Structure formats: C-alpha cells, structure tokens
C-alpha cells in the first residue's frame, strides 16, 4: 500500500514536551489556587498547534510514571539514577497536563513498570499489523530503533522529520542496530555506561562490520585485526565487558510487549468532552487558548465517538 494511502497514527512523547515547557516558559502563570502552571501552558500550546496543523484521526500521548519503578530498574538499579525526581511544582503540573490530554479526548498511555518509549513502541508494533504507519513525535534518539519502512520521527520543535534512512544519517547505524549501538557506546542521559573505550564512531564501525552485538561478541577475536584505531585494546575491552554490553542492551531496547489496549479505535480522538471548561477555569487560561481548545473540542469540526 502506498504511504499516502496508509492510515497514520501520531504517537507523542508527552513527558518530553512537558519538560521542554517547564524549562522554556516564563514562571508567570498560576492556576486558581496560586500554583505555577507554566509547563501546563506551554504543553497545551504545543498540543493545540499539533492538533491544528495535523488534524490527526488516530493519536496517543505517552507519559512516564516509572522513573524509579521501571522494569529496567530491577535489572540495573543504577538506571537513570543520575536524574533528580521532578520537584513538587512540576509533578503537580504533570498531573494537570495529563488532565488536559484527556479533556481533549486523546488516548493517554501511562504505566508504572513501562516507560513512555515502551508504550509508544508497543502501540506502534500493534498498529503495524493493521496497516498503519506511525509518526513518533519526539526528538529522542532511542526511538530510531522503532522506525519501519513507512514510519517517521518528528522533532516538533525544530520541524524536522526523518524515516529509517535518517536514523543512519544521525547515528551511523540502521534502526535494527540502535539498541546495540547504545549498549556499546552508552547513553549518559539514562546512566548507561556502555563498554569502556568504545565511543559512538567505534560502535557504529563495529556494527557495520559485524551486524549486531551478538555476532560481534561471538567473533570478538577478529576485532583486533580490523582497521580501527586501538583495535587490540577494543577487543580486550569487549572480552572483559561483553556480558555487561548484553545487560545494557536489555535497557536500551524498547519493549514491544507493554500492556496497552488492543485495536485501533482506542486511538480515535473523542470530542465534546465536558471536563475541558472546568480545567480552563482552574488553569486560568486566557481567551486565545480557551478559544483554540473549544474549537478543537467542538463536535461541529469532527464527529465525536
């Protein structure tokens, strides 16, 4: 089926855009109780713009609720241990951002054992069986591993889109190699150390030659003879830290079996939600934002479920 005829689902990395709003919006917005809501205002503007521009029929927003309770923490307790927990003001705003998402009739994905990446990955995997293409709205490099032939990733803030070929342009590896690549060179954002002495370029070169991490470790004796700077040292490091690399791959690989509701209808946006007006009052949205939200919620611009 041609890409233009395939149904499209937009899968949004909600937590990323809440954090971006928290850091970029001035601290001059407060709700009816006097609490800061700068992140909520910024996130709501982002969501309105996306809905107005794309008019998506199927979409979901995924949020993280598992900073310390993810299945990855059980595997590797140091996972994301370098991150501070959100301060109470931001934690409160996350709850309000989730409320806005639901008030706009958008499917929300959240779980205490699986991260937003896993919820998006599992949703994308299920949609593919129904002939859907997916647009992952996020700048996170980890999502590159999910991109199939017809899928896209969209960095909304920079308005940059790329498919599987764009993953190779950015990282030097193909989508199916991204988890192995991150296991080798590490990911400081998630506190994954990788194999000592193996950086991004070396990891990409090794995967270009061997294809995947398992093949690399099985044929590690060949590494010393490759035309790589410090090849002998690299081989020694891989022998010493090979099992750690396999462990790290369990962290870097996005799960495709997270508990999500099956089917495509769950991603259809509902309109005419009654909870929107009280939220606008509580969050003290201005006239412009209220009018945008009302237009997006109106059943006159699209049928409600």
Describe the structure.
- By secondary structure, this protein is of the alpha/beta class.
- It has 2 domains: 3-171 and 256-301, Rossmann fold (3-Layer(aba) Sandwich), CATH 3.40.50; 175-252, DNA polymerase, domain 1 (Orthogonal Bundle).
- Helices cover 45% and strands 9% of the residues.
- A 6-stranded mixed beta sheet has the order 3-2-1-4-5-6, sandwiched between helices.
- Helix 7 (178-185) packs across helix 10 (231-252).
- The longest helix is centred in the last third of the chain and has 22 residues, at 231-252.
- 38% of the residues are buried.
- It holds the Pfam family 5_3_exonuc.
- InterPro entries: 5-3_exonucl_a-hlix_arch_N, 5-3_exonuclease, 5-3_exonuclease_C_sf, DNA_polI_H3TH, FEN, HhH2, PIN-like_dom_sf.
- This is Exodeoxyribonuclease IX.
- Residues 5-270 form the 5'-3' exonuclease domain.
């Amino acid at each position: 089926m041609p890409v233009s005829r395939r149904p499209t689902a937009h899968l949004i990395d909600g937590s990323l855009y809440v954090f971006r709003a928290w850091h970029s919006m001035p601290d001059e917005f407060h709700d009816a109780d006097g609490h800061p809501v700068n992140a909520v205002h910024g996130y709501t503007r982002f969501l309105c713009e996306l809905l107005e521009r794309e008019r998506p029929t199927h979409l979901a927003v995924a949020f993280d609720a598992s900073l310390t309770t993810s299945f990855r923490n059980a595997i590797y307790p140091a996972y994301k241990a370098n991150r501070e927990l959100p301060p109470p003001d931001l934690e409160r705003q996350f709850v309000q951002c989730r409320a806005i998402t639901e008030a706009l009739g958008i499917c929300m994905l959240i779980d205490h054992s699986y991260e937003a990446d896993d919820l998006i990955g599992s949703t994308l995997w299920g949609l593919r069986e129904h002939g859907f293409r997916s647009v992952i709205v996020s700048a996170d490099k980890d999502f590159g591993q999910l991109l199939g032939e017809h899928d896209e990733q969209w960095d909304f803030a920079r308005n940059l889109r790329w498919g599987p070929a764009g993953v190779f342009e950015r990282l030097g590896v193909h989508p199916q190699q991204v988890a192995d690549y991150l296991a080798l060179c590490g990911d400081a954002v998630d506190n994954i150390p990788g194999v000592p002495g193996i950086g991004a370029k070396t990891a990409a070169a090794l995967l270009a030659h061997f294809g995947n991490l398992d093949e690399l470790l099985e044929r590690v004796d060949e590494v010393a003879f490759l035309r790589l700077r410090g090849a002998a040292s690299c081989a020694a490091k891989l022998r010493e830290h090979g099992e750690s690399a396999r462990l790290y791959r369990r962290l870097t690989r996005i799960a495709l079996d997270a508990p999500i509701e099956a089917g495509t209808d769950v991603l259809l946006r509902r309109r005419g939600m009654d909870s929107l007006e009280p939220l606008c009052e509580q969050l003290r949205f201005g006239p412009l934002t209220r009018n945008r939200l009302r237009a997006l919620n109106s059943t006159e611009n699209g049928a409600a479920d």
